[in-house]
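Backbone-to-sequence.
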């Protein structure tokens, strides 16, 4: 039986050892893990095939199956991503500030690991490697709980990680996995505050709600993205079609994929048909409100257009579906986004600097782009390496959570017989 108390104690003990490692020691562990991923690639792919087969028999959507799928290229990418983390600066031990107090004591603030992380996630086995390697680079231990649909893949990947740790003399309990899919164990993990310092849920709204309401551990929520693009009247329409296509089609099953495009009426007659015909090549279904639908009606033979439903603009589609709505100006676009956003990613396509400035200043999503795809809200694209999540809350991290976001700090005072008067 899974004993979370034992796992918690082991993780806490491992975290204390990890916190004292040098950057060189941590990098050696990461390189050992990368080598082990390559050495055991065939086994990883075989176990993933079992998860895919089970998923198809359970009727999982193509979007979920895509998130679940590992290929030779994706496994090779996991090893490459692990080696890239080796090249990233180690934030642990960095002195954030130092000053001499009037009484002669020197006071400094230094980055340290958080300690033990608990991460609950679904569907994407690559997340197992991303989280574990980022945690190891920052000296954190981690307890992982993936979805039942990825059980075979995740168990194999965790064994790969633990083998790499053993080969460099580090405790395999630095990375542990809750191998029992019983959902009651999630509730137990949420109460493991004696051992777990920070909890990160990566999944649907139900999981986030459960964690926020029941966790005794500080929770950082992220990963639910209802993402918007506003195409204003000054936009370069050729570039706009390319950006919308990239945002929606490149990988529709991820959280930074586009869900709703807002279009100014002044360019709608020209832009919407061009967009619809381009997206139809990838099988995108457009959910259009009445004004947009009227423009697109004559293109029904080239593009799939259906009337938008009541809740369609509150959906993270994770599939080849896109909401389409007309807005009168940037003010109305901002108001619409405020009403429907999860504060993940927004973008404006414009050549009007005033509109761009207003859009950037009046929205508070974790990432806002001007004339760029929503797909750039990503730890790798930001130069952070991989990420454990994209945080949509405001404390303690915001946006892609890379290495620095997995650290906290401590104050250090150097005195010479100082006593407080």
């Amino acid at each position: 039986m899974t004993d979370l108390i034992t796992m918690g104690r082991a993780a806490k003990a491992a975290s204390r050892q990890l916190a004292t490692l040098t950057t060189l020691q941590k990098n050696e562990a990461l390189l050992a893990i990368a080598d082990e991923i390559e050495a055991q690639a065939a086994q990883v792919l075989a176990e993933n095939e079992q998860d895919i087969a089970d998923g198809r028999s359970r009727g999982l959507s193509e979007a979920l199956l895509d998130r679940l799928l590992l290929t030779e290229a994706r496994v090779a990418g996991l090893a490459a991503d692990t080696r890239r983390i080796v090249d990233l600066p180690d934030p642990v031990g960095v002195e954030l500030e130092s000053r001499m107090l009037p009484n002669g004591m020197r006071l400094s603030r230094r980055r340290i690991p958080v300690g033990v992380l608990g991460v609950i996630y679904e569907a994407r086995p690559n997340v197992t490697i991303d989280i574990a390697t980022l945690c190891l680079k920052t000296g954190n231990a981690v307890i992982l709980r993936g979805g039942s649909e990825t059980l075979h893949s995740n168990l194999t990947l965790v064994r790969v990680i633990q083998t790499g740790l053993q080969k460099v003399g580090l405790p395999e309990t630095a990375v542990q996995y809750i191998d029992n899919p019983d959902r009651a164990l999630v509730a137990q993990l949420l109460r493991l505050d004696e051992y777990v310092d920070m909890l990160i849920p990566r999944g649907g709204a139900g999981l986030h709600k459960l964690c926020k309401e029941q966790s005794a551990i500080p929770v950082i929520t992220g990963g639910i993205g209802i993402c918007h693009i506003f195409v204003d009247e000054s936009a370069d329409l050729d570039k706009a079609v390319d950006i919308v296509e990239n945002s929606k089609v490149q990988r529709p099953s991820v959280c930074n994929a586009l869900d709703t495009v807002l279009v100014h009426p002044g360019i709608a007659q020209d832009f919407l048909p061009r967009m619809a015909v381009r997206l139809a090549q990838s099988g995108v279904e457009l959910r259009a409100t009445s004004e947009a639908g009227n423009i697109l009606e004559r293109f029904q033979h080239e593009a799939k257009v259906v009337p938008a439903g009541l809740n369609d603009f509150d959906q993270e589609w994770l599939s080849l579906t896109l909401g389409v709505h007309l807005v009168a100006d940037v003010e109305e676009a901002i108001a619409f986004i405020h009403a429907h956003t999860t504060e993940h990613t927004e973008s404006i396509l414009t050549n009007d600097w005033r509109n761009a400035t207003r859009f950037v200043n009046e929205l508070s999503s974790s990432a806002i782009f001007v004339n760029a795809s929503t797909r750039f809200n990503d730890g790798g694209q930001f130069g952070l390496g991989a990420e454990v999540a994209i945080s949509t809350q405001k404390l303690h991290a915001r946006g892609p959570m890379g290495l620095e976001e997995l650290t906290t700090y401590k104050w250090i005072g150097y005195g010479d017989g100082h006593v407080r008067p």
